[in-house]
Design brief:
44% strand, mainly beta, four-stranded antiparallel beta sheet, 409 residues, 1 helix, five-stranded mixed beta sheet
């Protein structure tokens, strides 16, 4: 091979590798469903092996890191000073670039598995949007990528004995947030440039839930789907108008929905536990319709960890560590296995793998297949409650004390 041929081979290899690199801009990644198209994410690691860098976090929280090019963003709570913060780090080195105080207010009452910084921020590469609870009000703030405050608004009240965890999502010129709580609950869309309220839709059942909306274009209709407020429902994200609803099947939800094989999959919640596969191509009340394709109860149901769907299979892990693989279309169980003591973090996928992260910092990597095949069992040695993020061939895992960048430097 001559020098020019060699240079072309190197260049084409680099282009091919880069073309599959993605940012992880918000909750559950670029598609809001835990999926990554990258094929070079790490499979095996420890707290010292295959670690590009590891930094100590000054403040606690269960929000996920988000990544845009070489910028890593994460929120935290200084519980001693009653401050909520947004910090930025260099993806290449882990060096902190800046930190801003978003809010100073008394700590709200919360569930012992929640934190005072559980809402994952979202970015479009130019602005960063964060959400916290300011006493009894939802607080949403916008910052540029250097940490300069652009605006802050309080679009509505929020009351829940379990605390706050509403991660914003971006759609066109809007930032949309779920305001399900034990009071005058709502969904709200703010103008991305100013924070001005564009629409606000009341949620009639007035019940706390923490599901982040999932937005998809389905047969020419844009749907924003979520569970919560004693229902599963779809809304037009441009106007907040409800398109369809399914009553129940339980009261409270946390895990996000996923969409695959023309079906939307729901898991939850409290006090009853259900998994449902729904055909979202409908209107009105679908509770007793044929749009509900299959329905499982109690066994293997997740309340907090969000599931994934890939290769025609639905992967889920219950809070108590029972993982299940289900055929998306038929609802047939392919396998079920205990994966750990307890799970809070949501699953993520690559085109051929599924990643599980439990509360004890242990990660199992499985083949995304109908037969159980474990590729790795990794032990980080630190409690982990936040969902991991994947970007540019690296995994970002937030522990109770450290932020880990897993993979090659």
């Amino acid at each position: 091979m001559n020098r020019i041929t060699w240079l072309w081979a190197v260049l084409l290899s680099a282009i091919a590798s880069f073309s599959f690199a993605e940012n992880w801009p918000g909750w559950r990644g670029p598609r809001g469903d835990g999926s990554s198209v990258e094929t070079n994410l790490p499979v095996k690691w420890t707290d010292t092996e295959n670690v590009a860098w590891k930094i100590e976090l000054k403040y606690g929280g269960h929000s996920s890191p988000v990544i845009w090019n070489d910028l890593v963003l994460i929120t935290g709570a200084d519980t001693a000073a009653l401050k909520r913060l947004l910090g930025a780090f260099d993806r290449r080195t882990g060096k902190q670039l800046w930190e801003v105080i978003v809010d100073e207010s008394p700590l709200e009452k919360k569930h012992n598995l929640n934190s005072w910084a559980s809402s994952t921020p979202v970015t479009d590469g130019e602005k960063v949007f964060v959400s916290f609870l300011h006493e009894k009000e939802m607080l949403v703030g916008a910052y540029d990528v250097s940490g300069k405050e652009l605006w802050k608004v309080r679009p509505g009240i929020f009351s829940s004995v379990h605390g706050y965890c509403s991660s914003p999502v971006l759609f066109e010129n809007l930032i949309i947030i779920n305001g399900d709580h034990d009071g005058d609950a709502y969904l709200v869309a703010l103008e991305r440039a100013t924070g001005k309220t564009v629409w606000k839709t009341a949620r009639e059942n007035r019940t706390r839930s923490y599901c982040t909306p999932l937005i998809r274009e389905i047969d020419g209709r844009t749907q924003m789907m979520l569970s919560g407020s004693k229902s599963i429902a779809s809304f037009d994200p441009r106007t907040g108008t409800r398109q369809w609803v399914i009553d129940g099947p339980t009261e409270q939800f946390v895990a996000s929905l996923v969409y695959h094989k023309d079906l939307v999959f729901v898991t939850g919640g409290f006090p009853d536990k259900h998994i449902m596969a729904i055909d979202p191509r409908g209107s009105g009340n679908l509770t007793k319709s044929e749009n509900i394709k299959w329905h499982r109860q109690r066994n293997g149901v997740s309340y907090v960890p969000s599931p994934v769907a890939i290769n025609g299979l639905f992967f889920i892990v219950a809070d108590d560590g029972i993982a299940t693989c289900i055929d998306c279309v038929s609802g047939e169980q392919k396998w079920q296995k205990r994966m750990g003591r307890r799970f809070s973090a949501s699953l993520i996928t690559t085109p051929d793998r599924v990643y599980y992260l439990d509360d004890d910092g242990n990660s199992k990597v499985l083949k995304a297949a109908a037969e159980y095949e474990e590729l790795a069992d990794n032990k980080l040695g630190e409690a982990t409650f936040a969902s991991p993020a994947a970007s540019q061939g690296q995994l970002f895992i937030r522990g109770e004390k450290h932020l880990f960048c897993i993979g090659k430097p």
